[in-house]
Amino acid sequence: MVPDSQMSSFSIQEAQDLAAFAAQTTARLALAQARLSADQGETLAEQRWVEFAAARVNDAARLVEAALSQARLLPEFAGARKVKSETLSSSWADAVEGVFDAIVANVSANGPLIEALFPHQRFAALRRPGSAAHSFWLEFERRSESAYVKRLCGDPAYAFLPPLLEAAKASEQRLREAAQPRRLPEAEALKLRGQVSDAAAVLELALRQARSLCEAAFAATPEVVAELGLDAKLKRRAPRAEPAKVSAN
After folding, report:
1. Where are the domains positioned within the chain?
2. pTM above 0.70, yes or no
3. pLDDT (tens digit, 9 = 90+) per residue, 96-106?
4. How many angstroms separate the CA atoms of 41 and 4, rounded?
């Protein structure tokens, strides 16, 4: 662990940068281990140093990933949530269209089941999140709960239908949850940011230790450190300037 007096404060974005840099470092450490294994001579101790460095970086990186996952409801993740929502929206559309395609393939393209579930086949609306997609789902959900559809779901000849309807329902639920994230109280948000910052500080120390251990492992051939990129350092983002406050005189 890092002593409190020596810990730096890391933003969410900086923690994400560190996690990405750690993934690159892990790949470079694997190359370093392979290089040491291939070299002739007494390299057992050096191999252990690099193995230890890799283990420290991996353990610390997992802490950061866990902290970032717990903090996913913070405003800093709004952009990522939007991308995820678009992906879930596409998956939901695929699930609903999958019901239609399965009915066409297994029953008929213009039979009563299609009429019961899809009287209006405006699938394009599903891929445009908004009121039209919401209305489509409400109508589809109501129709899928009708007595006629439920009766067919119990018919062995329509065994394909229940799991597809359930998949569409589950997909829509994931989309709805992503579109309406829980609002965090300020105290909880501060706690989550602190957890991410603390985990990032541990990872930053592990990365510095890994760099030193690699320099020691390749002390006889220091050019290898640069060759494998083991001397790379992550440049921290410049702090954002606070907006100037206008005096109300």
Report:
1. 4-74+184-227, 82-179
2. no
3. 999 999 999 99
4. 42
